Amino acid sequence: MQKPQKLGFKILELIALSLGLPAKKFHPFFENHGSYMHMNHYPPCSNPELALGKGLHTDLSAVSVHIEDNAGGFKIKQNNGNWATVKPLSGAYVVNTGDAMRVFTNDRIESVVHKVMVGGEERYSVVLAIEPTRNAIIEPLEEFVNEENPPKYKAFMWEKLSTSRKLSEFVKSDVKTLGA
Ligand SMILES: O=C(O)CCC(=O)C(=O)O
Ligand SMILES: [Fe+2]
Q1: For residue range 119-150, what is the model confidence (pLDDT) as tens digits?
Q2: What is the rounded CA–CA span in Å between residue 177 and residue 5?
Q3: Which PANTHER family does this entry report, sorted A to Z (predicted)?
């Protein structure tokens, strides 16, 4: 995962520059970073309209770097509420921003709402979630806070959010998200 990791950190730098911040602005929060990789396997489904691969969610990460196969089905929610399908492109990574970036930027950069639909074809993906150091204190950076934009999040230790989210992912949800 060396390349996706390098890419993830490069994107953190590019986001910082695009916001008028020094390139390495986010780096102190990622020393001994708590990034992790996970893999998803979606078996082929004969009734895709009755199944959901992965329900709508945002990632906890600052940025997530995905390696996708050619099966397709990755969808992102647009600002107008419509879902856009991300077409698989051989040799390309799919990158989305997550909740940590949203907190750092006091909602200036949103976390991408996404989901995965399954089809008749088997599907695999590998995701590298670039997450802050477990004991880093996370809060909106001062550059994004002023009188008109008070902080939308209180300071918290990253581990608290990441542990509670990861535990909740193993709880069966009765919320219907299919087709949302
Ligand atoms: O399988 C995919 O393409 C994406 C899965 C995903 O969104 C995730 O693991 O957070
Ligand atoms: Fe995701």
Answers
A1: 889 999 999 999 999 999 999 999 999 999 99
A2: 31
A3: 2-OXOGLUTARATE (2OG) AND FE(II)-DEPENDENT OXYGENASE SUPERFAMILY PROTEIN-RELATED
In this structure, is residue 100 part of a structural domain? yes
Report how far ligand 1's centroid is from the alpha carbon of 127 (Å): 7
- CA-nearest of 131, 169, 163 to 55 is 169
pTM for this predicted structure: 0.90
Cβ 54 under 6 angstroms from ligand 1? yes
Closest ligand to 74 CA? 1
pLDDT in tens, 88-114: 999 999 999 999 999 999 999 999 999
Instruction: Count how many domains the chain has.
Output: 1
Rounded CA separation 132/126 (Å): 19
**First-residue to last-residue Cα distance in the chain:** 32
Which residues make beta-bridge pairs with 23? none
CB of 144 closer than 8 Å to CB of 105: yes
103 lines ligand 1 (CB under 6 A): no
75 lines ligand 1 (CB under 6 A): no
By residue range, what is the domain housing residue 53?
Answer: 2-165
CATH number of the domain within which 120 lies: 2.60.120.330
